[in-house]
Amino acid sequence: MTEIRTDWTRAEIAALFDLPFTDLLFRAAEMHRAHHRAGEVQLCTLLSIKTGGCPEDCGYCSQSVKAQSGVEATKLMDVQQVLQRAAQAKDAGSQRFCMGAAWRNPKDRDMPAIVEIVKGVGAMGLETCMTLGMLTPRQAEMLAEAGLDYYNHNIDSSPEYYERVISTRTFEDRLETLGHVRAAGIAVCSGGIVGMGETRADRVGFVHALATLPRHPESVPVNALVPVKGTVLGDMLADTPLAKIDDIEFVRTVAAARITMPRSMVRLSAGRESMSEATQALCFLAGANSIFTGDTLLTAPNAGDDADGALFAKLGLVPLQAAEPMREAAPLVALQATEDVL
Ligand code: SAM
Ligand code: DTB
Ligand code: SF4
Predict the structure, then answer these.
(1) Is position 98 annotated as part of the catalytic site?
(2) pTM
(3) Domain 10-306 falls in which CATH fold?
(4) Is 283 a catalytic residue?
(5) Which residue ranges have their beta carbon within 6 Å of ligand 2?
(6) 3-state secondary structure of 149
(7) pLDDT tens-digit profile of 162-193?
(8) Per-domain residue ranges for the chain?
(9) 44, 85, 96, 129: which is the annotated catalytic residue?
């Protein structure tokens, strides 16, 4: 069995990135097969339960008050409405329901509704994940007591590049919240974004920061930047056509995450909509084993169930049969396109 290491050096991770592409893929695929059923991919659904008007200045985000993205600010959704959307996601075959709020941090007055939502979604037999911004230790405990399975809080990039993308909170702030989440006993979901104009060294630093946490995040989302007009990064990239992340480099990042964090679920997250089927297939070969399904992420478009059904059928992939901290078995039939396509 592979040794799970948290003492990776940047030089070792850089050496992985530098491998000939097929060697890197081979190693990642081997690691994937040693720890996971390689033909299975977890299906997760996202819902923005509180959209826009966020006081943070994350340069990629359509929901920041600093962005002129046209995203309208809303209040926290009604509990029953969220539960209805969770039920729809479950019917569509989703296994994890991830809820995001455009907050710097939840206010204590928001917590009773959040707790009710976690309990309600968990009772449906869905894995629950929330991303609400920074948490106090007490808020993390409240979420744990409500039965929250995962908390998503991304480190986003290398510590050095992070400061160039976000100024309203620090990398250390992010780590502090991750510490509170761990201490409360909630599984950690933390990853970041590739394609924000960072260098290879930043991508190495990003994987290194995650792979050297005291415990690896159970879930590692790797997003490709969705360039949104009106955001700092979206506008910057629009003026620099060559800045879009190279597909092979994106796959290399996924592979490095898989090799350094063998047991984690590596999620091919935002940006799939503009990725070719072949690139997505390479990501699955490189060890990605989780995706977001449905037409929308939080505010940006996503590939959609029909496209995913067709892709799964083409690639012979099936939804994950049973995820680790699952409360009860999820339905297996999700994306039915097999006959249509073959
Ligand atoms: N406000 C909370 C926070 O920042 O922790 C939760 C919501 S935030 C939208 C969740 C994550 O989505 C961010 O950390 C970032 O990694 C990712 N994200 C946001 N906008 C994105 C974009 N345009 N392209 C790719 N990923 C994005
Ligand atoms: C994550 O790493 N990616 C998801 C989830 N965690 C919350 C969010 C992606 C957001 C993409 C941009 C949008 O929809 O606005
Ligand atoms: Fe706010 Fe999260 Fe968007 Fe940053 S990424 S602006 S914290 S919603």
Answers:
(1) yes
(2) 0.93
(3) TIM Barrel (3.20.20)
(4) no
(5) 46, 62, 98, 100, 131, 152, 154, 191, 221, 223, 226, 269-270, 297-300
(6) coil
(7) 999 999 999 999 999 999 999 999 999 999 99
(8) 10-306
(9) 129
